[in-house]
Amino acid sequence: MRKKGILFAVCAALLSGAEAFACTGLLVGKKASVDGSVMISYAADSHTLYGEMYHWPAATWPKGAMLDIKEWDTGKPLGRIPQVERTYSVVGNMNEHQVAITESTFGGRRELVDTTGIMDYGSLIYVALQRSKTAREAIDVMTTLVREYGYYSGGETFSIADKNEAWVMEMVGKGPGNKGAVWVAIRIPDDCVAAHANQSRIQQIPFDDKENCLYAPDVVSFAREKGYFKGKDEDFSFAKAYCPYDFSALRGCEARVWSFFRKYDKTMDRYADFVKGDLSKEPMPLYIKPDRKLSVRDVQNAMRDHYEGTDLDMTKDAGAGPYKVPYRWRPMNFEVDGKTYVNERAIATQQTGFVIVPQMRNWLPDAIGGILWFGVDDADMTVFNPVYASSTSVPECYRVGNGDLLNFSWTSAFWMHNWVANMAYHKYSFMIEDIRKVQNELEGGYEKTIPAIDKAAQELYAKDPAEAIKFLTWFSTTTADAATARWKKLGEYLLVKYIDGNVKKEADGQFKRNPYGLPASPDFPGYDEEYYRSIVRSAGERLEVK
User: What is the C-alpha to C-alpha distance for residues 474 and 471, in angstroms, rounded to an integer?
Assistant: First the structure.
């Protein structure tokens, strides 16, 4: 997501305390996955985004029909473009042909934002999904739209994938009144993984590899014209020209990519100084070949990262408090005695609207092969529920209009997950254990169930594709709604168990009672020794028992 008018990386705005949208995306090629599927991921991180699932049914349009374009972040009308004759069904960020598109904003150079353009980044995504059968076709649709109608947004990195290929495309406008954009798209090798997190990541462009690299014809010449680059074409770096690194871009953005890469490449620690802000160090590659293959659960868990296992681990400093909370409330920067400090920005963050892992499987019919693993709120404490991309309706718990950011709803997944998460933020080290049990119960159950659902759907599909789609819609909607109801029960349990800082005694999943039927006296766990020592350092003389 994005915030207009940001110079350099959008994460720089985050670190300076401005409100902005900042997202993380991971990509997995089909030969880098356990089962041969292509996967991408996306956390739509925003303090003003409500977690719901968008849906556009397939449609046929009359000649001369027009499509209203509104800025995705604000709803501001931007203009109208001609509608195409036929559009495809879209659920969330995935369409019926197993095409998925996500993004993260890097902002780039302020002077390249074109406020006269019609196509903003969000409209590009969802219009392209309605008009594309493959990732390459989506790239063509998106670049044609900005060429014809202008690009309204700042710099963006897009993940664009289908059942066979995964691409990273980066795009920047050409300034006020200048239609089009400069862009480059690179296919991620099938045996590799990639990531992006609010900083332009494409360095040198393999201009001669026409099969795996697409680009605007003026991508280099425009940079020369603007004075962003001097030198030979082979030395040109898209990132250096259009979104130069600064401290915030490394620490708040590239560090997230590094934390993902190092899970699957033991040599990535050589970039530790780079992501901590050393601009003199060599940049990380766009993609790496992992030392083992990734499953859907691996990608889901990667979206829950807080730098665990690194010296940026958010549970290891005093900011985590007595319950080791891996979150820091905004603003991202703070000042003490004239010095400015930064809170870490991890992949998992509290202000997420929704988080997804689109999975595309080329050995199945499109109606069955595409699964949008969909969760809401903080990725760390969400449940990724399977929604088949052929679904013709949206689960009630994700429905647009079932609550909003200003109106609570007991049947909204977004509000149920926020309710649980906001309890857990205050006693994280205790509550996360209970949350993980239910999270694993549900996600582990899906892992076992999906093969049977696929098989049943294939049998139906062979007889009547419409019946298969009806079945998959039923499964997707009932499963998500049941998971939301289960999360509500979890919230009730946590409130009872941890009320007033105590911990209820349990046995076999039931809270204990005394011999007379009344609640047993709870445990009083207090704090750990480290936290008590910090209290003594700050107020020991006043609190010491004489």
Answer: 5
Helix (H) or strand (E) holding 430: helix 428-463
Q: Which residues are CB-neighbours of 428 under 8 A, at least 6 positions away?
A: 323, 324, 325, 326, 327
pLDDT value at position 19?
37
pTM, two decimal places: 0.94
Give kind and range of the element (H or E) at residue 101: strand 100-107
Look at residue 16 and tell me whether its pLDDT is greater than 50.
Answer: no
Helix 135-149 to helix 121-131 angle (10° resolution) is 130
- Preceding amide of 515 cis, omega within 30: no
Strand partners, 24: 43
- Interatomic CA distance for residues 501 and 323, integer angstroms: 11
288: closest CA among 302, 268, 303?
A: 268
**Residues 483-497: tens digit of each pLDDT:** 999 999 999 999 999
Q: Residue 395 contacts by C-beta under 8 Å, 6 or more apart in sequence? A: 53, 385, 387, 413, 476, 477, 478, 479, 480, 481, 484
Answer yes or no: is pLDDT of 265 > 70: yes
Q: Which residues contact 355 (CB under 8 A, 6 or more apart)?
A: 41, 42, 43, 44, 303, 374, 375, 376, 379, 382, 384
Quick: pLDDT tens for 75-133.
999 999 999 999 999 999 999 999 999 999 999 999 999 999 999 999 999 999 999 99
Give Cβ neighbours of residue 313 (< 8 Å, ≥ 6 apart): 306, 307, 326
Which H or E run includes 335?
A: strand 333-336
Residue of 370, 353, 453, 405 whose CA lies nearest to 101: 370
What phi-psi label fits residue 161: left (phi over 0), alpha (psi between -120 and 50 degrees) or beta?
beta
